[in-house]
Amino acid sequence: MKNIRKKALFIIDNVFYKGAFLKEELEILKKSDISKRDYNLVVNITKGVVQNRTLLDYIIKEHSKVKFKKIHKIILTILEMGIYQIFFLDRVPEYSIINESVKLANIFGNRGSAGYVNGLLRNLYRKKDELLESKFGLMDLYEEDKSLFLSIYYSHPKYYVDMFLKDKGTEFTEDLLKANNMEPPFTIRVNTLLISREDLRQILDEKGYKSQDTTMSKFGIVIENPEGIFESEEFKKGYFYVQDEASILVSEFLNPEENSKVLDLCSAPGGKTSSLSMIMGSSGEIVACDISKSKISLIKENIARLGIKNIIPTINDAEIYNDDFKDRFDYLLLDAPCSGLGLYRKKPEIKWNRSYEDIQALSKIQKKMLKNASKYLKPGGEMIYSTCTLTKEENEDVVYNFLRENNEFSLEKINGEEILKLYPSKDSTDGFSIAKLKRRTNGIK
Ligand SMILES: C[S@@+](CC[C@H](N)C(=O)[O-])C[C@H]1O[C@@H](n2cnc3c(N)ncnc32)[C@H](O)[C@@H]1O
Questions:
Q1: 40: helix, coil or strand?
Q2: Which fold has domain 246-439?
Q3: Mean pLDDT across the stretch 360-376?
Q4: Residue identifier of the C-alpha nearest atom 6 of ligand 1
Q5: What is the pLDDT at residue 371?
Q6: Homologous superfamily, domain 186-242
Q7: Candidate of 242, 244, 253, 266 to mutate for ligand 1, largest count of ligand atoms within 8 Å of Cβ
Q8: What is the pLDDT of residues 102-118, one digit of tens each?
Q9: Which fold has domain 4-137?
Q10: Band (49; pLDDT cuts 50, 70, 90)
Q11: Which stretch of DSSP H or E encloses residue 415?
Q12: What separation in Å is there between the alpha carbon of 265 and the centre of ligand 1?
């Protein structure tokens, strides 16, 4: 038996039960001796299972003869993988899905496991069309309890669904949940210090890459077929940085002038900091901070490749007030650590490893960071507070609480919004929240 599904099984087990990150697990696998085709199948299965966990478990609960809580976790994962392949992957034949699942159950389970897995998967396969038609028997729930239906059918935490249903209504919420389960576009930011967007697109085109300009950012390029892009000469030469359009926009909205002094308080691995440098034509000075030496190394690596000269990587804890920074900067970016609920498309495990308590704890940290950050701006200076999450606790609560206590600052609207929200559904970007604050020149109003 080929080891492909065993590899997928171990990866999912590591992600669900050992706190591993899917992207990192897949990066390790990619470096091993594995064909492109097999690698893609592992990516498909692991991502699909992590993304659709609630629905897969619901199907098991409804059809298993063994009580859900009694199913051993390794057998549960084998079932989740099998069911995902039956209902979501068209190109894998039935016999192969069932045979491979039974083989895994034989290796990792006890004597009854193989028969149990075989029976359950065969039964589900027989009822495939009927189950798809009836949305796995969940249709009635749509009217009875919309939030529960959406949370099971699109596999999202209930608190996330409730948050959007309350504020945005059913259609918006359903579109967002669907988009969160889809593949994100592959977006890069051109490094205009070295090449224009037009010229880079021309080179990419000559090499067979299909691309288009991003719709909102003037620096982004979406590549349809990015296979091999990291091995390209253009990547090595620093012509671009892989970055979501929302993230590129954050630096465009701050838009620092040439020769200004900028502080980036949470800058690793350096995406937004290098965009800021590019906007400033690599002039002036950016103090790019992060919490640890290893994080600072990531920034150094990226700015070396991109040929950037005006960034000073600095270890600094944004939670602790630093008097050396007081009133020193024209511009400031606080791209705060957050729950990352805007990143479900890229890091689906975030769905399962963030609790509401985590969000509340992060909100406290962010409030502390924003309070410190505000003291580092010169009068008349501008700052952006951004997160790759969409919760009120980590955005509206943080920003409005700050403004209530600091009337020396005002909120500058972005695209007509006090706190701009970007969504995978509406904007095809990661979920982001962006607020711009200005320190008044003439002190307290
Ligand atoms: C959202 S990420 C920043 C992404 C970065 N701005 C970019 O565009 O590439 C948040 C960063 O905050 C850093 N961080 C977490 N706690 C911190 C602290 N107390 N002080 C400074 N940085 C911190 C994390 O290490 C992480 O790199």
A1: helix
A2: Rossmann fold (3.40.50)
A3: 98
A4: 267
A5: 98
A6: Sun protein; domain 3 (3.30.70.1170)
A7: 266
A8: 999 999 998 899 999 99
A9: N-utilizing Substance Protein B Homolog; Chain A (1.10.940)
A10: very high
A11: none
A12: 7
